[in-house]
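Kindly go through one protein, given below as sequence and tokens. The question is how this chain folds according to its tokens.

***
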Amino acid sequence: MTHYSARRLPLQRGVAAWNALLPARQGTEALTGAITADVVVVGAGFAGLSAARRLKQLDPALRVVVLEAGRVAEGAAGRNSGFMIDLPHELTSEDYSGGGDDRAVIDLNRQAIGFAGEAVEAYGMAPGVFDRAGKINGAVSAAAVAHNRSYADHLASLGETSTLLDAQQMAEVTGSRHYASGLYTPGTVMLQPAAYVRGLAEGLMRDGVVLHENSPVTGFEKQGTGWRVATQQGQVSAGKVILTVNGHLESFGFEKGRLMQLFLYAVITPELGPEALKRLGGQPRWGITPSDPMGTTVRRIDSGQGGNRIVTRTCATLRPGMRVSQGDLDRAARIMQRKFDQRFPALAGMKMENAWAGHLCLSMNSVAVARQLDEGVFSGCVQNGLGTARGTLTGICAAELAMGTETAITRHFTAEARPSKLPPQPFKEMGANAVLRWREWKARDE
């Protein structure tokens, strides 16, 4: 009998700060006993909830059950930077260039943004949840400034608009004199990611999707023509299984030795009072990604997204066991405090309210794993650090594959190669973290 067991379960480090900014919600009950479904979706993040929504679009009568190991928005969906980016944004490159068909990537990302925007409207989410504000690629060094100019030329060749900002314009936006220039692109959506996935979950439940939180899947096995999915206290018998667990796909035995389990870190300020806001200056809501992927992402939010606060995100560690230590988090928090002080000297020394780690998964050749894994088993995993847009796409892909629907999304992902093999341990972890530290130092000002 075919059987897949989870070798490890998700472990989070630090508060999921985006979720902590929201009013408390009453969670759903853990799965107990035995139930049935047409399709069971494992994971309730961007990919899993997008898969559930797409399944119901394709067949409103379908019985869909979603199983979440923790609470909705407490995992990666509540721990990212909230940028839903339409343009190529390859984290393993020196400058985000994907090196492939940029036009196709842009079109797919915009399908994801359109899908999310329709869900926001259909489920009546608040305006601040989904802000079509665009983003700025910030530059500090002369090399980074040159990259912004080159990238602007590349976008123009694709028919895409962008606007170069000088140092004074960057200061007017951010209140910071740190940046030499910026490149504004209008297509990015700035999410309150926890509010979005919570709104998506609540809307899906109104549409008849069954959601069980605190129900980590321990394994699943073949049962006749379908599958029996086991949790710690219950089980679901379903015709089809969709795995939307990102890097935890490896926990179930798939793509072992091919997935890079990476953690990024972030801190957030307490709510800024009137005096702090006056000293800071700048606009009330903006987002900056660094010119170098190993640089520092900074985002300012306002009352529509959780209060007047600044989020700082940087540092990365590879942890094949998918668990970071408190020491990892403490080190990153110290670095981010220095970077915050560097950018905002008027607020230097402000103690951060929360620090957290967020798990993401990359493949060395930048492919996803969105395909059929076994008879009746489908995957929407490995978002390569782009969990909002690509997670949405891989979830849609998995749902369409499960329903036998061919689209541009399924054609794109099923044409991708398998993830490349990684070096064996201990070279994988030691070597990768050495490279990450070097690239982190190199991009220290960006």
